[in-house]
Amino acid sequence: GQTPLQSPQDIQVYVVNTNFTLRWSYSGAEPGVTFSAEYKWLETSGSEWQELPGCQNVSGTECDFSSAITEYYDTHFVRVRAERRGQVSPWSGVLEMVPDHEAQIGPPGIIELQSTNGDIIIKVSPPEENQGKKMWVNDLSFKYNLVFWENSSNSQPRSKNIFHVDTIKDLAPDTTYCFKVQANLPVEGKEGLFTPTRCVKTTQKVNDLLCATNLRVLGLNMEFHLHWDNQYKQPVSYNVQYLIGYLKRLKGDYSGQWAAVPGCGDITSTRCNISSVITTTGFYYLRVQARAAPSQSCLSGEVQVDPLKTNEIGPPGVKLDISDTLLHVQISPPGGAEGRVMRNHYGLSYRILYWKNSSNDEEEAKVKETEQTVATIPDLAPQTLYCIKVQAFSEVYNKSGAYSQEECIQTRRERAFPLIILATFLVALVAVLLGALPLVFILYQAYSKIKYVFFPACQPPLNIEGFGGQLCVSPYLSAPEEPIENCSIIESMITYEGNQIDFKDYKHSKQNSRDSGNYSNDDNTSGSKDSAETLEKEII
User: Fold this and answer.
1) What is the helix (H) or strand (E) element at residue 119, kind and residue range?
2) Cα 307 to chain centroid, rounded
3) Cα 54–57–58 angle (5° rounding)?
4) β-strands 237-244, 284-293: how paired?
5) Rounded to an integer, what distance in angstroms lies between the CA atom of residue 392 and that of residue 254?
6) Residue 102: exposed, middle, or buried by beta-carbon count in 10 A (0-12, 13-18, 19+)?
């Protein structure tokens, strides 16, 4: 006949370092109600629910179960129920949690807070120091944020990042200041809890004129110089010392780690080149020790140097070249060859400003940005004077260097290249034609002559075909020798008795033979005469 118990609601877990607190709410009004919790995590065998140590038969609405959690990166499940005289409520909803995700960073410890010569020296210890179980394994990963203010009603708080041991300067003398510190993990995006507030009163500051003051570092193209002011009227020498920055992050006394800067010992000037000890990695601290006598010395305050932030980017070198309406810009990075390390770390880009240098031209300067050391500016007006200057800048560090000196160059006259090319082509074509025509004519004439001489066309007309035509012979070639018909003429008339032999027919035959074109030459005359005599004798 008892009223059923209600389940607990709003289950929450609060984790600070390795301290675990389970909280819930209960809306029931029954007296004598207690609460018990169970938990499990996936890595246990069988993943069975187990009683949560420190959270059994609890009369309130929270319990501490720090002793039960040993694995801070595993997923855990928690549930709660109400109990009363053997009666139990249904289990609450299951709460899932990963201790490392839920944990908050606890407050660090303030070991020392002391006023010295108008300044406050503070020493802090990391959270969970000297504890066997730690949620945060690497103490060096902590960043400490100090918040301080004057202990007055209208004071505005100030904040500063500090190391394990640090000095707070620029405080009003004889004034009470209050301090609180928190430890943060920027990489994980976690902010810790503040320490309880502690207050201390500052003392009067003793002004020692021997000490170097107003220390400052100037850097240009990774060349660094330390400057300071001298208030001492007597001769004084200085020694510059430096400390590598990460040593301050380590726990312990780093006072013996200061080292002398080469070339900056026992100097009388108020400046020194410290580039030999400054690299692009990490950060550094510098201070100056002043000596006026063997027994008189004073250490100045410290100045921090972050090379890539302190350094200023110088102007680049610029060379110009012009081709028609194109302006070619060749850029020499700042620092020359020795500035290569700086350029690699900064990732330099270049901003080019160019404009027409004309008194009657009010055109604004145009901007072109490039990551290369060679750039081309197109579409320039012909026969116009252009001026240019270049600036190097780094987007990563949000730094812009000085502009280079102004350089000017004039573009060339406009040339109608298409018309020139067309005219040149036409002139060349006409010249080729004029030179080729005589040559073609000469070759044709030579061909005709050669064909006529060596290969004549000889075909007799049809009306004289069949008359024993013969092969054509070139008139310019020697013809084969024709056979010569030898004929004899008997001039005398011989009368034989009874018969008269008349040689007129023979003579007529000879005449006909001469008409046919076969006539003997004079060299055959003697042969003809001999033949005539022989014939005459035979007749006789």
Assistant:
1) strand 119-125
2) 22
3) 70
4) antiparallel
5) 39
6) middle
β-strands 311-312, 213-220: how paired?
Answer: parallel
Cα 201 from chain centroid? 55
Neighbours of 288 (CB within 10 A): 26
Q: What percent of the chain has pLDDT over 70?
A: 81
Q: Which amino acid is at 437?
A: L
Residue with tokens 């008359």: 467
Averaged over 454-471, what is the pLDDT?
A: 56
CA distance 198 to 180: 7
Angle at 245 between CA 242 and CA 248, to 5 degrees: 105
Candidates 12, 34, 21, 10; CA nearest to 89 is 34
CA 198 to chain CA mean position, Å: 52
Tell me: pLDDT of 260 over 50: yes
Our measurement of the distance from residue 345's CA atom to the centroid of its chain's CA atoms, rounded to an integer in Å, reads 12
Burial class (CB in 10 A: 0-12, 13-18, 19+), 500: exposed
Query: In terms of pTM, does the model score above 0.70?
Result: no
In the chain, how many H helices and how many E strands? 6, 36
Write the DSSP assignment of 222-280 as a string of letters: TEEEEEEE---SS--EEEEEEEEGGGGTSSS--GGG-EEEEEEEEE-SSEEE-GGG--S
pLDDT in tens, 410-441: 888 766 556 677 788 888 888 888 888 888 88
Measured distance CA(224)–CA(216) in Å, rounded: 10
Residue 410 has which token pair?
A: 């004039």
Query: In this structure, how many other beta carbons lie within 10 angstroms of the beta carbon of residue 112?
Result: 11
- Euclidean distance between CA atoms 371 and 347, whole angstroms: 8
Do strands 213-220 and 223-229 pair parallel, antiparallel, or not at all (unpaired)?
Answer: antiparallel
Q: Which of 293, 322, 469, 294 is nearest to 385 (CA)?
A: 322
CA distances from 475 to 16, 444, 455, 471 (A): 132, 21, 11, 12
Task: Report the pLDDT averaged over residues 511-526.
Answer: 42
DSSP 442: H
Burial label for 196, CB within 10 Å (0-12, 13-18, 19+), is: exposed
Q: For the chain, what is the largest distance between any 2 Cα atoms, rounded to a whole number of angstroms? A: 207
Question: Which residues are CB-contacts of 245 (< 8 A; sequence separation ≥ 6)?
Answer: 282, 283, 284, 285, 304
Rounded to an integer, what distance in angstroms lies between the CA atom of residue 99 and that of residue 15? 7
Surface-to-core class of residue 105, CB atoms within 10 Å of its CB (0-12 exposed, 13-18 middle, 19+ buried)? buried
Q: Give the domains, in start order, of the chain with CATH numbers.
A: 9-101 (2.60.40.10), 109-202 (2.60.40.10), 213-311 (2.60.40.10), 314-411 (2.60.40.10)
**Tokens 């070139």 — which residue?**
474
CB-CB contact of 57 with 36 (8 Å): yes
Ordered DSSP codes for 168-204: E-S--TT-EEEEEEEEEETTTTEEEEEPPPEEEE--P
